[in-house]
Amino acid sequence: MVKTSDEIKRLLWDGANDLRGSMDASKYKDYMLGLMFYKFLSDKTLEAFKDAAQPKDKTKLLEEYKQAYIEYGKDLTTMIQDMLGYYVQPDYLYQSWLEDIKNGDFELQKVIDSLNAFERTITVHEDNNDFKGLFSSSIIDLNNSALGSDLHKRSKNIKDLILLFSDLDMVTLQEEDILGDAYEYLIAQFASNAGKKAGEFYTPRQVSEVMAQIIAKTTDVKSIYDPTVGSGSLLLTVKKHLSKDAQRILHYYGQEYITETYNLTRMNLLLHGVRPEKMDIRNGNTLAQDWPEDPSKPNEGVQFDAVVMNPPYSDKKWNEREDMPLKVSDPRFSDFGVLPPNTKGDFAYLMHGLYHLGQQGTMAIVLPHGVLFRGSSEGEIRKRLIEKNYLDTIIGLPSNLFTNTGIPVCVLILKKNRALDAPVQIIDASKNFIKVAKQNVLQEKDIAKIVDTHVNKLEIKGYSHLAPREEIIENEYNLNIPRYVESIEKDIPQDVDGHLYGGIPQHNIDGLEILNDTVKDKLQSALEPIRKGYVNLVKDINELTEEVLNDERVQEKSSKIADEINVYINKYMNEIKQINKDTPLVDLRENMLNEIKEILTSYRHVDTYLGYQVVAEIWKEGLSHDAELIALEGYYNAARIRKENMVTKGTGDKKRQEQDGWIGAVIPNELIISELYQDEQEEIESLKMRLSEIESELNELVEAAKVEDSEEYDALYDVIKKNEEDELQDAFESKKVKAELKTIDKNSDEYKLLKKVDKLFTEKSKVSKDVKSKDKDLKEAAQFRITELNDEEVELLTQKKWFGDTVDKIVLLVEQPIKDELFTLEMLHDRYKDTLDDIDSEISELEKSLEEMMGSLVVM
After folding, report:
1. For residue 194, is it left (φ>0), alpha (ψ between -120 and 50) or beta?
2. How many domains does the chain have?
């Protein structure tokens, strides 16, 4: 069966974990990702040979290529080299390694020779170094003892790694945009496992998404530059959000100081289908060596439509890496008249990026919060940014988003074409995240809210603010986010008068915005004024809740939303059914997310982004995988595909994968059972209920048999299980029951009780067998039924899987805010129901009771 991108990702990452042993993840990535890329180069070589030479037997490409190489030699390799910019000799192909493994002739030295030889097969262009040094022995050192303590172990480990990619057709996977995604996924997984060592090469996906979406939605991007390019994830995330036409003409520029990471960038871009002539990636120190430079404009630098950057935070050695320290006269810094402090290079990277930003371009950079408020030269730079009107938006993000630091960071958006009176937008998104393991993570709804707020220049209480220049000047150019965006206090302040004299403050009632706006009459009828500015709740909160939720206005709103969501579901079910290999799944997902926002935006007091997250989760939890399979196989065929259910058995050296039946590739077996085998399922549930009843009856008899002088004690005490210390357990021993029945008078009461226990044991055994048997039959029936589903069943089950609870979840967005306010009302009622006088009276009564009790005590 064809594997989806998610399945390929899991396969590769599971393989990586199994194979790397104790090797550090940050180092193992160089071996795994390097060999994966070499497989791609080999597959491309054979594909180019097939297209150019049109061999007779295309099923034996390796043999045909070897024969053609013998016959035509340099003419053949020159032809392939002209097509690709490189070639891999037949004996050095990845496929030759696999052939050697199959024949038992594998030698590690051949892999080393192959990687070394590749450098000599690259077309030599002065301006083209995209493939040079990719497999340098200083980075992919196959003699490294970390791969194994001796040659045999190293050879085995590399052989296992080679086999991991053996079945993957890298050319087809690249054409389907799967290969690049898998590569990026592996980079992210290695970054997560590498911890603090990952900061040098990876920006978390959700942070990249914020920056990329803002740039893609606000800027016409034909060229993009990342001066601290890392793995290239920021460049590629921007690419993903551009149209296909824009992607074709986009030119990528990047510079990276660490050589291993520089190699990673080039491989990542090439695997994502970026053509060599569209990428200029350089290995160098961005600050020490300004690049790219335009010789004809030495004081301007090359300008780009977009600049993205996640530089080292507060780089303490930013101006110490070269013999000649940078000076304020450097064109990148001269506009600001001052250099950043030597111990904090944050603004040095910002100024470098800004220097290369075109007049109509957009820059997005990740920096620590200190740049917003630190003084001295950084304060001067900040002031200059405001005076020159470059700073467009500040986005405060949560702490602990990055694997290499727990500090909170911010994204700064800069532009050179802002209107003179344009305010600086300040967004505080620091409280919007979920916890995943040890990391904080932005959800899709959080990213969407940030991007929408920025693009539409929204001002939202407690979340965003548009600060005019005058306000910033009043704050002495201090841009610390809390100065501009005041947090909404969730805790309701205590009211002294309310505590002293009772009653809920009226201003707290007025603060129940949704209840006042939706069912004000219902709310007022539940309250009674007791004095000016204070009221009592005179209706039971449960009764009020029922009244409010059943109110025709609430019901009408819920019903209207439910109807709209049902239309939405039917629309997109039809679109999903039509998915084929030419369907842009990214666009389909984007359309679904945008439309749910449009629907919910028209309803007051409904959180649009919670609804957005509902749809995002549908894609995340299955539709992404299923849509890909539908594109490959067609809707109805994909729904009828089943695959082996592989389970892990054994431990240690005996750990292995074994098949345990079949599971639906799209439709879960459990869903088939719950929807198509309800009678059988009810029968099993009924048997399980009877089993539970039998257990309860036996437990009651055991407990009764432990009570001395009871009938059960006389008859059953001796047949209760006991441990080695002769302590009573909580069950009867079946053998003892049967043995006792043979020796006791059949007409006695003791016999009747023993017989009752025996019958319960017999019934329990039978029911247990029936449950197991019927459960097994039902599961087998479901496994068989997958391939036999009719069209109507396919439609029922897939809609149930993807959208089964969607209407309920969206309707809850109407009801939950109302429930929350009713809960607040109940809390306020409980807070102020006991006055100071009530408490004093209770204390007096308790003191009086204590005195009476003390008076009744008699000293003997």
Report:
1. alpha
2. 4
